[in-house]
């Protein structure tokens, strides 16, 4: 058997070996459910994603007969997957921080009228969606058992963990020094709103730079397409292996590196 046949068979076998059964996926989701919803989804999808990548690599090698095509496709796919995952994580963080702000409104209002911290946290949980509501319920349980609700907020995980850490910090300050907790919570909410407004303005200002980076990364593809229309047959050179395969991998790596570096710079400005 030639290498062109052996390598696809090995990759296909790896794909089948890495694909977990349904029972295993259920156990993964059950064990990680208490940590965070996001972590649960990532743990459940990771083995399937690895198996899908191995199967796709098998198909590409069989169709093209070139390992360079597979390497270039994996580079582009990994870059696209990373950018989509980061965008999804940003949307999730924004939604959860907004839910925390809504919960803080209810929490501060309940404490202002003299409600017990446990009842106030429970009322705030009713105004939020999971997993933010679960954190408020944990804090309510802590307060109901005689402890400090700050410990419930401090143990929170996920995209809104930083916001909950701020709530825990001001709660501990109020417990230690006897300050008005409702006013401190309103200050935390105002701080979260200010940070959200700053992030939106910064994201809007960086939209042009990100669009320019995406256009520049796609220009080589447009150039190759124009060369193909002119009869220069660049695809045959790039997909034919040898020097063309090396150029395909290097070009794909440089384009992906440019996108990665642009995202790193813009995200550092936003954060």
From TrEMBL:
<keyword id="KW-0812">Transmembrane</keyword>
<feature type="domain" description="Type II secretion system protein GspF">
    <location>
        <begin position="104"/>
        <end position="224"/>
    </location>
</feature>
<keyword id="KW-1003">Cell membrane</keyword>
<dbReference type="GO" id="GO:0005886">
    <property type="term" value="C:plasma membrane"/>
</dbReference>
<protein>
    <submittedName>
        <fullName>Tight adherence protein B</fullName>
    </submittedName>
</protein>
<keyword id="KW-0472">Membrane</keyword>
<dbReference type="Pfam" id="PF00482">
    <property type="entry name" value="T2SSF"/>
</dbReference>
<dbReference type="InterPro" id="IPR018076">
    <property type="entry name" value="T2SS_GspF_dom"/>
</dbReference>
<keyword id="KW-1133">Transmembrane helix</keyword>
């Amino acid at each position: 058997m030639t290498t062109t046949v052996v390598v696809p068979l090995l990759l296909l076998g790896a794909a089948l070996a890495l694909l977990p059964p349904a029972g295993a996926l259920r156990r993964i989701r059950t064990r990680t459910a208490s940590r965070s919803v996001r972590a649960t989804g990532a743990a459940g999808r990771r083995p399937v994603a690895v198996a899908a990548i191995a199967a796709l690599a098998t198909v590409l090698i069989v169709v093209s007969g070139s390992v360079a095509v597979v390497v270039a496709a994996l580079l582009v796919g990994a870059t696209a997957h990373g950018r989509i995952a980061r965008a999804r994580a940003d949307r999730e963080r924004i939604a959860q921080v907004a839910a925390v702000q809504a919960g803080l409104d209810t929490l501060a209002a309940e404490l202002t009228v003299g409600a017990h911290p446990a009842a106030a946290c429970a009322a705030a949980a009713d105004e939020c969606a999971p997993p933010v509501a679960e954190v408020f319920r944990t804090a309510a349980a802590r307060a109901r058992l005689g402890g400090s609700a700050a410990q419930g907020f401090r143990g929170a995980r996920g995209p809104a963990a930083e916001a909950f850490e701020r709530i825990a910090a001001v709660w501990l300050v109020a417990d230690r020094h006897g300050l008005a907790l409702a006013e401190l919570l309103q200050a935390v909410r105002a701080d979260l709103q200010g940070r959200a407004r700053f992030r939106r303005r910064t994201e809007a200002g960086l939209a042009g730079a990100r669009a320019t980076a995406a256009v520049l990364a796609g220009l080589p593809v447009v150039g190759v397409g124009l060369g193909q229309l002119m009869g220069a047959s660049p695809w045959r050179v790039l997909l034919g292996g040898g020097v063309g395969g090396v150029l395909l991998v290097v070009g794909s790596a440089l384009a992906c590196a440019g996108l990665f570096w642009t995202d790193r710079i813009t995200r550092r400005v936003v954060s």
